[in-house]
Amino acid sequence: MPHVTRRNFIKSSAAGVAGLSVAQLLGVAAGTPRTPSAGKSTKGLLFDAEDLPQIRANLSLPRFSALRASILGLDHAAEQDFLRHGVRLNNHITDFSRICQALEFSALAFAVTGNRQAVTTSELALDRLRDYPRWDYFLEGGKDTIGIQRASDAIIATCFALDWLGREISDTRRSEAEHQVATKGAPACHLMLYGLKYPDRVRGWTLDPAEDFPVKLDLDLRRWPLILNATNLKIIPTSALGIAAAWLHGRHAEADKWLQMSRQSAQSFATMYGLDGAYDEGVGYWGYTTSHLALVAEVLYRRLGLDDRKLINYPGTIRYALALSMPCGGKKIGDPKLNSTYNAVPKGDYDPALDIVNFSDSGTGLDVSSAPWVGQVANDPLASFVAANAGEMKQYPALVWYRAGAPVQPPGPELHDVRLSNDWVVSRTGWRPEDGVVAFRSGGPSNHEHADRNSVIFKAYGERLFHDPFRAAYVPANPRWLLRQTAAHTAVLIDGQGHQYHDGHEGTNSSLAFARIVDYRTGPAWMTATSDATDAYSLVLPGVILVTRTLLFLKPDILVLLDRVRLKAPAPVQLRFQAFNEDNRAVVTVGKNQFGIRRPLASTAATIVADGSFVVQAGQLDLPAVEGVFPYAEVVSPAANDHAILTACTAAPAEEAHGELHLAREAGGWRITCRHRHRTVEASLAFSPAGEPIVNVST
Questions:
Q1: 513 neighbors 539 (Cβ within 8 angstroms)
Q2: For the segment 310-326, what is each residue's pLDDT rounded down to a tens digit?
Q3: Which of 612, 628, 650 is the last residue of a domain?
Q4: Number of structural domains, the chain?
Q5: Does residue 12 sit within a domain?
Q6: pLDDT single digits (tens) 281-311
Q7: What are 590's strand-pairing partners?
Q8: 484: domain range?
């Protein structure tokens, strides 16, 4: 490829730039049409002028109230003051990110309203991005910028803003912005993706020592070219590089190279999704990862006629998200640290209506921004239903893709019981806050995982009853790193120790801990699954012979757990049942062979039997008081070689009494009889000589 100088690029860009904004085409701002960008299409990157009425209509919908507030409610005076006086040119984590968001929101606001203040904000944001010597805070070989995070954001923000602003910005500023994309953005993202493709050629990745970090990040990045190849951090530069290539196609000598790398990277990343659409990092990271994969596919199709819109099972991945949707009741709970200084802990309020099965670092809500796109492209009415009814849509492309009148198909009973390809199991009675949901975390490791094999989440009558804590820290120096450990989950400890996990010196990368679903069956109003986590525990406890958990969900509100642990030498075993206490309203009670967890809307009552003696006690995680109170109930089985502990639980709405539970030991197993909420259920749980669970249920 011939070398492109700054002067030649600016000269050629000014001659061939896409000059007319979509807002001008609708007459909201004056201007004269100009020659569109070179390429196979004159379509806008994301939308065209004729799409604006639909976008405006979508902005008026309650469904998009949060995006409407962010875009149309942007405080231009405050942002302009920050852009003129507050920007630190060695701070990418907060300042650079804020600039990118201001640029996107202000340019989009101009496109839909013609607001002149939005143009000023956009111009200032473009100028500040120009002023940064680098567009990211990671280096290769100590000198070359690699676009792991912020360079991607800046590319996407800049290219979309140039598309939406058109002639409202000068040729000089436009050409300079494109030069920044071509010199500080795209090469950094290409270098990052090249390193993931050829990790043996990487000359060492490090954090930029000039970066103004708000918290010390003592991370070893030597293996990141191997680690990041299977994480969400690959897809954002993949998307950005493809968008840069589409915008500069035919006008920059490197654009074809960027396009090829982006498409190859997207194709390789597609294998991170199961054939059913399951995504291992959890549904929180699934949200923006999938929307960025869809975004680059849409841009390439619109601008270059390249169709990569079937790289993954998009209808299946929407069903994956739906499986992990778990709306609860009650009021929103504010995050007391939402506006505090960044400290390597994810932040966000908890809105029970948006609740999820939060395995891994999934956060507190579900973003389904890709669902309306899938509904259109795949002609999938269930995806359109999800777009209209599940979670929320936090990414602005959803404003373009959403169609209020699209045909919808609500999920049916066939989706009530799901064993995903990554061995996560979810069983439910429906998607209403009052419905029952049980989620069982088996499967293997992944980026952003926790030490949570065989852990369980149980929700009923609007409340989380067995909880998986939110907001675990990303760095081990923070006390909330404890929330990643087995001890903070509804899971099994052996002599106080959980299964294998890493020490965090490389970040939130995957461990070596595997569990496997060895039995999964469903029937009328019941589901059973058995997960074997022996491998995960034996990595750190060589005396482990067997660690399994069998789960029986008798819908809608009875849950039975059988934990079996076999050891070469006697050791105690603890079963922990975590309570949801973000609002400090959980109450844990214990008795001789019982425990209860009470929440404002519902409660659970558990009865325990075991082959040996046991003690039931209450406790809380050892965290500083400023981090909150994390209570749990714990069943302690004293030192022995073999442990078999049966825990049977009922759930009931608040102030309603629980029924009677009778647990009896039989030859080879147990019998459970429960009279609860006007019904009687009987079940037996035993094991074949080969160790396979045998479950029988009658109502």
A1: yes
A2: 999 999 999 999 999 99
A3: 650
A4: 2
A5: no
A6: 999 999 999 999 999 999 999 999 999 999 9
A7: 595
A8: 416-650
User: 58-66 long-range contacts, Cβ below 8 Å, gap at least 24?
Assistant: 58/399, 58/402, 58/404, 59/112, 59/399, 61/404, 63/388, 63/392, 63/393, 63/402, 64/393, 64/398, 64/399, 64/402, 66/392, 66/394
Sheet holding 144-146, edge to edge: 144-146, 138-140, 205-207
Residue 289: what are its φ and ψ, rounded to 5°?
-65, -50
Q: Which 3 state secondary structure label does DSSP give 435?
A: coil
- 585 within domain boundaries: yes
The first and second tokens of residue 615, run together, are 């003690």
Q: Looking at 171, 199, 229, which one is the last position of a domain? A: 229
72 is a domain residue:
yes
Say which DSSP state 199 is in.
G
CB 606 within 8 A of CB 577: yes
Contacts of 18 (CB under 8 A, 6+ apart): 34, 35, 36, 37, 42, 162, 163, 166
What pTM, to 2 d.p., does this model score? 0.93
> What own/partner pairs with CB < 8 Å and gap ≥ 24 does 612-621 have?
612/637, 612/638, 612/640, 612/643, 613/637, 613/638, 614/638, 614/645, 616/590, 616/591, 616/592, 617/590, 618/588, 618/589, 618/590, 621/482, 621/483, 621/487, 621/488
The residue among 569, 564, 529, 570 whose CA lies nearest residue 546 is 564
pLDDT for 341 equals 73
Pair of tokens at residue 444: 């293997």
What lies within 8 Å, CB to CB, of 225 at 6+ separation is 195, 196, 199, 202, 205
Evaluate if residue 338 carries a pLDDT over 90. no
Residue 65 placed within a domain? yes
d(CA 256, CA 249): 7
Tokens of 682: 């009987």
- In angstroms, rounded to a whole number, what is the distance separating the alpha carbons of residues 619 and 487? 11
Give the SS3 label for residue 524.
coil
- In this structure, the dihedral spanned by the alpha carbons of residues 633, 635, 638 and 642, taken in order and rounded to 10 degrees, is -140
Cβ atoms < 10 Å from Cβ of 609: 18
pLDDT (0 to 100) of residue 667: 83
Dist CA 589 CA 454 (whole Å): 24
SS3 374: helix
Unique residue bearing structure tokens 């609708």: 26
CATH number at residue 448: 2.70.98.70
CA distance 292 to 395: 9
